[in-house]
Amino acid sequence: MADGGVDVAAVRAALVEFPDPETGQSALAAGQIRDVQVNGQKLSLTLALTSWAAPIADQVECSLRELLRQRIPQALEVTIQVAPFERPPQPLGDIGLTVKTVVAVGSGKGGVGKSTMAANLAIGLQRGGARVGLMDADVYGPSIPHLLGVAQSPTVVDNRIQPVLFRGMPVMSMGFLVPPGEAVVWRGPMLHGAITQFLRDTQWGSLDYLVIDMPPGTGDIALTLSQLLPLTGAIVVCTPQDVALLDAVKAIAMFRKVNIPVLGMIENMSGFLCPDCGKRYDIFGSGGARTRAASLDVPFLGEVPIVMQYRELGDAGRVADSFADPHLSAPLDAICRRFVQNLADAKAAHSAPAPLPILE
What is the pTM assigned to this prediction? Predict the structure, then answer.
């Protein structure tokens, strides 16, 4: 090392502790940090990330850059090239689902925008570059097909259900199988069978995330899911007022009772943005979900305001266009990114240290 140049040993020590966001293990040990070049006070490398981490790729790059600047002050110029890294998902449980993260989106009551939020979570993750599937487990009131504006029926090929594709994202819902206006009148065992078939017999492919829109309330579908496969966790959607939060607390208690971790709360309808004057009116109050999340030791993922276009897009089957609205795109993107970042932080916190590799 020339005087004032970059210390290669310090670079190695800094890189080995940087975690891959998907696994929490050393990205260097996994071969995801490569092409490390040192030239005087210049440092360059390639950071390879899986599509699971794609929604937060810019944050991961910034974190690595900041780490290097702190640990390697001699590096006056740090260049990081982000590249793709393939790591196929392993089959989950007896059901054999090939997906890395399964998240259930639930609520303690209906009418809080749970299905809209589940759809936008899946769409937002896919927009970020992840491979995502969306399953509508609200058998009695499936609304995902309407929100997405999808009406075609799934087909069966070689005894495998071929899900409906929405902009390349596989989607499965009872709404595709039941004529409009017809009610589903089933008891528990039939519900269990339908959910099992949706998971086991659908050709989901290899996914980073499967988002499951749960029925409202605290019914037995959560128990069915907990028995079928290891869920990563659940997100609870609620509105700010106390009467809604009471039911959200029950939903959190239900998930915890069946050993499904609660990954976060989202406050929907958090203030009305007047389209004429731009002023915000807290019709249902504000901040209730954030406060309750803190008291329950649950991460708060964000809030979405009441915007007239949000309702109009959902009614028109164009909920995906919410990301084009300037009042909605920022909070929805923030929720998706915070969700993935929280998962990455949790994995890094629980991972074992990797052995120190040799830089070539």
Answer: 0.91
Does the domain at 91-348 match CATH 3.40.50.300? Answer given as yes
- pLDDT for 355 equals 46
Q: Which CATH architecture has domain 8-87?
A: 2-Layer Sandwich (3.30)
Query: Nearest to residue 204, comparing CAs of 175, 167, 236, 161?
Result: 161
Rg of the chain over all Cα atoms, to the nearest angstrom: 22
The CATH 3.30.300.130 portion of the chain extends over 8-87
**pLDDT category of residue 359 using cuts at 50, 70 and 90:** very low
- Among 55, 68, 58, 61, smallest CA distance to 15 is for 68
DSSP 18-70: PBPTTTSSBTTTTT-EEEEEEETTEEEEEEEE-GGGGGGHHHHHHHHHHHHHH
Rounded to the nearest angstrom, the gap between the alpha carbon of residue 321 and the centroid of all alpha carbons in its chain is 18
> Which token pair is 147?
């929100």
Alpha-carbon distance of 216 to 45, in angstroms, equals 48
Q: How many residues does the chain have?
A: 360
Element (H, E) at 135: strand 132-136
